[in-house]
């Protein structure tokens, strides 16, 4: 009996561990000429990794995981390698444990450069090839800034490129349902003053303007950091923003406290937020936008990055059922139209031929176009066919990204991990829980001081 | 599926390995010190020698693994706590200095003390009451099984269950959280329970009490059954009522078991981590030492020195309780 069980277990293990087959591919190679199939065929010819294993770990679960795997499937089909992707809700902690324990994946997908910088300084990341650096400089819009963001100091104090940005998010977006706006007769606000006016108008009409959710497992609080960064860019100069990120401008400086209070204007008012101010920190960021779609609408607007449509109800047509407008800047302040963005950075935590090949694969147009054609993916890569975007909404965002002038990267991602993925999150949760902005700023600054 | 197959294989190898080791080492001992076909004098000597070596052989693996997984980490934690972020440069007591000036640490300490005062006391109390009550009724065993069941659920599993119980939805929408559904049913307003400072701590403790009451009940129920009937009968003849019997006759006789249960739960509470991580991750003033340690050790690249310093503090706090617990347990055994 025991043998029987063991044998069937072995048989099952063999069956389930076989790698992806070509029929897993979302778009058949050669069929749709929007895609750059030539780059896929070329890669297929150049690289053979038959029988090699590659492990990738990242922060994505659910919808995002399926999307990532749909791209990985092409790598598997082209090279014959067997790729295993594992996602984790607490990736920030998990990856630290993995590298310290010597069980690091080949490739890690960092949502925060700050965390990657930290691991690089301890010698846990392998530098990327010089070709990659050159490639990013030449092929990405604002290329040198993407190189700078992925360049860290290693254990010996040398600067190297450790991270390759693939999958960029645009953050300065407000999502809404066009139909609801039409029914109520609301115009899309062009300035921050108009946006605040609209917020009050909706309350006066008996509605709730905003859905805000900060819940995200062990990462609870992060959506609020985007709010504060966006409002920093709309109340202070880009130079001040940079000084804030590097802590030359203290976290309890009036300029920063003012930005936090700007966020409080939206999130701290029971009438402005679905569920009241208390609900902000407890509602999950993945469920928060669903309030837009309920009938009657629980809220009219949701400020969130470009990835959020992955969590919209099944069958939502972007541009028709849901759309976005740019999170506007103050007309009274001369700060232009700043854009906040972020991206996931792919780094090699356990070097192998397959890992290097995968980073090279991410430099083919097809690797970008496959995800572009679906949802929640933008790229600054100038070599892709912009028509590959799954819909006009994404195309609009892709254009914003390619034409970015004042583009600033997500500040919390650039701060030291303990701040950007710790004290800042906790501080924002405390703030929505009723602590004063000044007190929160003091606490975060105290943590930052203690790091030095 | 693969994991299942591997874990089955590991289990099999582990059991076979143990059997092989104990039989094999014993067999070697007999080969080295033969007791058959030798002179009587030699036989006696060999038996003595083998008897002296055998305990070390049999205890060897256990001692080795205890050393590797328990003793070595203790010394390594102390070593790390005196060093910097990467455990490389010596910083003396700087990590401890930082710790005692850190607001979060003070908050964690206060919260841990609250946990310590409330959870063991209530778990033991409920366990005792339930044990006493269910002993007398016909469906007592069913009641006991139901109360014991949460013991079988992992802390994370329990946290997820209770996260749903405490879940909050905006007023006016359907409450999927049991607690808020009840509140709304009786005409109240729903609350975001886990964000209300102080009360959220209590609500988190409820989860652990829910898990641990079953444990206390089982141990105390066994202790109650071990009480000689004569003492109770004598008390009845002397005209004691139920309450008096319970407090003056039964409790004093199982005092030792109560102490063991209490201290066991206390040690568990000192290490409480999973529940806080899953429910609040230490936000809204619910931080506890173990979660803070995890945070410093692994978040944002981690700071090994500070993480280890917190670990050492937790260890120092556990030691006295543990010593007392072991002594009590030993006293119990001698009493039998």
TrEMBL record, chain A:
<dbReference type="Pfam" id="PF01547">
    <property type="entry name" value="SBP_bac_1"/>
</dbReference>
<keyword id="KW-0732">Signal</keyword>
<keyword id="KW-0813">Transport</keyword>
<dbReference type="InterPro" id="IPR006059">
    <property type="entry name" value="SBP"/>
</dbReference>
<comment type="similarity">
    <text>Belongs to the bacterial solute-binding protein 1 family.</text>
</comment>
<dbReference type="GO" id="GO:0042597">
    <property type="term" value="C:periplasmic space"/>
</dbReference>
<protein>
    <submittedName>
        <fullName>Trehalose-binding protein / maltose-binding protein / sucrose-binding protein</fullName>
    </submittedName>
</protein>
<dbReference type="InterPro" id="IPR050490">
    <property type="entry name" value="Bact_solute-bd_prot1"/>
</dbReference>
<feature type="signal peptide">
    <location>
        <begin position="1"/>
        <end position="22"/>
    </location>
</feature>
Automatic annotation (TrEMBL), chain B:
<dbReference type="InterPro" id="IPR050809">
    <property type="entry name" value="UgpAE/MalFG_permease"/>
</dbReference>
<feature type="transmembrane region" description="Helical">
    <location>
        <begin position="6"/>
        <end position="35"/>
    </location>
</feature>
<comment type="similarity">
    <text>Belongs to the binding-protein-dependent transport system permease family.</text>
</comment>
<dbReference type="InterPro" id="IPR000515">
    <property type="entry name" value="MetI-like"/>
</dbReference>
<feature type="transmembrane region" description="Helical">
    <location>
        <begin position="113"/>
        <end position="134"/>
    </location>
</feature>
<dbReference type="GO" id="GO:0005886">
    <property type="term" value="C:plasma membrane"/>
</dbReference>
<keyword id="KW-0472">Membrane</keyword>
<feature type="transmembrane region" description="Helical">
    <location>
        <begin position="245"/>
        <end position="270"/>
    </location>
</feature>
<keyword id="KW-1003">Cell membrane</keyword>
<keyword id="KW-1133">Transmembrane helix</keyword>
<feature type="transmembrane region" description="Helical">
    <location>
        <begin position="146"/>
        <end position="165"/>
    </location>
</feature>
<feature type="transmembrane region" description="Helical">
    <location>
        <begin position="202"/>
        <end position="224"/>
    </location>
</feature>
<keyword id="KW-0813">Transport</keyword>
<protein>
    <submittedName>
        <fullName>Sucrose ABC transporter membrane protein / trehalose ABC transporter membrane protein / maltose ABC transporter membrane protein</fullName>
    </submittedName>
</protein>
<keyword id="KW-0812">Transmembrane</keyword>
<feature type="domain" description="ABC transmembrane type-1">
    <location>
        <begin position="109"/>
        <end position="325"/>
    </location>
</feature>
<dbReference type="Pfam" id="PF00528">
    <property type="entry name" value="BPD_transp_1"/>
</dbReference>
<feature type="transmembrane region" description="Helical">
    <location>
        <begin position="304"/>
        <end position="326"/>
    </location>
</feature>
<dbReference type="GO" id="GO:0055085">
    <property type="term" value="P:transmembrane transport"/>
</dbReference>
<dbReference type="InterPro" id="IPR035906">
    <property type="entry name" value="MetI-like_sf"/>
</dbReference>
<feature type="transmembrane region" description="Helical">
    <location>
        <begin position="56"/>
        <end position="75"/>
    </location>
</feature>
